[in-house]
Amino acid sequence: MRKKMNLKGIIALFLLSFWYINPSQACTNILVTKNASKDGSTFISYAADSHVLFGELYFWPAADHPEGSMLDIYEWDTGKYLGQIKQVSHTYKVIGNMNENQVSIAETTFGGRKELRDTTGIMDYGSLIYVALQRAKTARHAIQIMTDLVEEYGYYSSGESFSIADPDEVWIMEMISKGPNNKGAVWVARKIPDGYISAHANQARITTFPLEDKENCIYSHDVISFAVEQGYYEGKNKNFSFADAYAPLDYGAIRFCEARVWSAFRQVNQKEADKYQDFVLGESTDRMPLFIKPVEKIGARDVMNIMRDHFEGTPLDMTKDAGAGPYKVPYRFRPLTWEVDSTEYFNERAIATQQTGFSFVAQMRNWMHDPIGGILWFGVDDANASVYVPMYAGINSVPYEFAEGNGNMLEFSWDAAFWVFNWVSNMSYHRYSYMIEDIREVQTELEDKFAAMGPAIDNTAMTLYEQDPELASEFLTEYSHNQSEITVEKWQKLGQFLMVKYLDGNLHPEKNGKFLKNEYGNPHSPEYPGYDDEYYRNVVKDAGEKLKMKDFPKEQD
User: Fold this and answer.
1) What is the number of helices (H) and of strands (E) in the chain?
2) What is this structure's pTM?
3) What's the start-to-end Cα distance of the chain, in Å?
4) Which residues cross the membrane (predicted)?
5) Percent helix / strand / coil, the chain, rounded to 5
């Protein structure tokens, strides 16, 4: 579990104090139940959005441990040593955020009431995730493990929303510690009804919940009574809202966080989601539901595309205002809020963002053996300009391009997928409306290939599994490794292509990826596309007469 304390950790430690106050810089999760998906899969997605997180695919092999063993716990964000917990006799293999039983866990930080942070606890949110993945057989089992751990060892982090899923069930659990004088945490977990999807994005979303439905709703015994004791709630138990008590809404929480949920919902059920447009604009208190029924069932590619969203086609569309510049860039660099003439303004915070370390779409399928049924579709950097590569639950090692230890945040490396994808996406931010078309072409080509090959890979692995499960794992490992290598090589070539095509603001003509030459064998004359009319009008408005072409004055007689 230990992550080395390096400069990345020191920087993160500094930033963490700000993050708890303003958690809107972090992550987005989409949750999809079996009957909301095209093929009966369950899905959860995640974007690990951090300015200092190096994108890599974590791996823990299955292991047996001697009786009496202890496990050191280090805070996931910083590497700070927090203490020890009792180790279990056997731990499961974990690939990223999915284990060999197809249990997957993701998170978003909502922070909540600052006074409830308990710095004496041992279990931080990241350790909860990865310890639970090493121990859990099902989603319900993971919830039990996580809540038992904070009860025994204390909860170190601030408020957190967790997505917890297996091939049959999808749950959202929200948890917050009880302050330095009260060990443990208060929490509530709700099973998403089959046929629905949910989402969360750095704001607590569980409001009221069914107190008597133990099959579909689990909660700590003091989740209501503690809120009453602290003065956060007064009223009948049936009307108690976890989110309102422990993470009250403000405008920032709505616009930076809930707006992302709304945009995700809008892509699967626009008519229903549009009822809450006034809410995300801060003009209504009518909150969105925890889950929504999609108009059409969705698949892995649909979830991937939701993770690439910048509010396109909505009043919050990031390509439509002056901040997008002449090339319609849907990104805004930090700070998130800023002032002009003593008035505070803000940048939109979309699902896809430039500072993502890694993201994934976890797909779980109950009709296959676990090593084959589980696929962690994994990508690094900005989800919008990344490729989701299939990592099966049964693989025995992580592809070199994504492996932990292959590169770091402060040293560029052509071997590390994180740096290759960042190189390409950072080029695109300067000529986005043009370059994204080239990026999308290669991205689609690769993901189309994965989708087309998927059934054959599944069937071959299933046949091998019946002969020898280890043969199936070796086959899947080789497949994921090969596709990772091919993907990174393709992206390196894409970056080289973009560099030539858009050199110095020009546009060098090409056909089918080959740059054109003139009749003498030299480079064809480039195009000079310039800017659009709107941009030129803004330049004229700002520059006035300074840039206006004028008649040359005649000589005086």
Assistant:
1) 15, 23
2) 0.93
3) 88
4) none
5) 40, 20, 40
Cα–Cα nearest to 316, from 348, 271, 276, 272: 348
CA–CA separation, 115 and 178 (whole Å): 8
pLDDT at 21 over 60: no
195-215 burial string, b = 16+ CB within 10 Å, else e? ebbbbbbbbbbbbebeeeeee
Cα-trace Rg, the chain:
25
- CA dihedral for 413, 417, 419, 424, sign (positive or negative): positive
- pLDDT number for residue 1: 39
What's CA 179's distance to the chain center, in Å? 28
Task: Compute the distance between CA of residue 323 and CA of residue 334 in angstroms, rounded to an integer.
Answer: 12
Q: Is the peptide bond before 23 cis (omega within 30 degrees of 0)?
A: no
Nearest alpha carbon to residue 507 among 442, 434, 440 = 434
Buried b (16+ CB within 10 A) or exposed e, 284-298: eeebbebbbebeebb
Number of Cβ atoms within 10 Å of the Cβ of 521: 6
**How deeply is 305 buried, as exposed, middle or buried, from its count of CB atoms within 10 A (0-12, 13-18, 19+)?**
middle
Q: Which residues pair with 59 in a beta bridge?
A: 95
pLDDT on residue 108 = 97
Whole-number Å distance between alpha carbons of 512 and 502: 16
CA-to-CA separations, 532 to 49, 271, 320, 433, 537, in angstroms, rounded:
32, 33, 13, 11, 9
Q: Which residues pair with 91 in a beta bridge?
A: 63
Q: Where are the domains of the chain?
A: 7-357, 368-506, 511-547
Cα gap 82→100, rounded to integer Å: 27
Distance between CA atoms of residues 421 and 379, nearest Å: 9
pLDDT tens per residue across span 313-343: 999 999 998 899 999 999 999 899 999 999 9
φ, ψ (nearest 5 deg) of residue 223: -60, -35
